[in-house]
Design a protein that fits this description.
InterPro entries: Flavin_Rdtase-like_dom (IPR002563), NADH-dep_flavin_reductase (IPR050268), Split_barrel_FMN-bd (IPR012349)
Number of helices: 3
Pfam families: Flavin_Reduct (PF01613)
Strand order of the largest sheet: 3-2-6-9-10-5-4
Number of strands: 12
GO molecular function, one term: FMN binding
Oligomer: single chain
GO biological process, one term: pyrimidine nucleobase catabolic process
Strand content: over 45%
CATH superfamily: Electron Transport, Fmn-binding Protein, Chain A
Protein name: Flavin reductase domain-containing protein FMN-binding protein
Amino acid sequence: MDERQFRNAMGKFATGVTVIAAEVDGNVHGMTANAFMSVSLSPKLVVISIAEKAQMLEKIKQSGAFSVNILASDQKDLSMVFAGQMKDHQEVVFDRLDGVPVLPNVLTQISCEVTAAHVEGDHTLFIGRVTDIHVNDSDPLIYYSGKYRSLAEE
């Protein structure tokens, strides 16, 4: 199987859309990611997967903390900004959750402290201990087969 076939197959798994944020030397950095999942309830742990070539990799290593911001269905533009697909945009202002930068008005904000990092293939998996969480009531932004989607009403 070639790389394109693998990517297409993995794209058949519908995911939510997140923005991962970290702060280094007073500067907040963010990137769009859909490689996120919960790992454990006790202790409360999540994992994110960051490509070795991503600038965000070193930012998380330096910071030792990160946030996961789960986007709502009306936040496609925010996803595109942090994916580098939208160059002309207003500056994004961050809030704080347990001292970690988070995006305001997202579906869910999760602040995390890095507890472990595992290099696997061309990615690093960061395990984060959840230090705080804030949830809003809204529908999620969905990513499926290379396109943004929304949940359909039943």
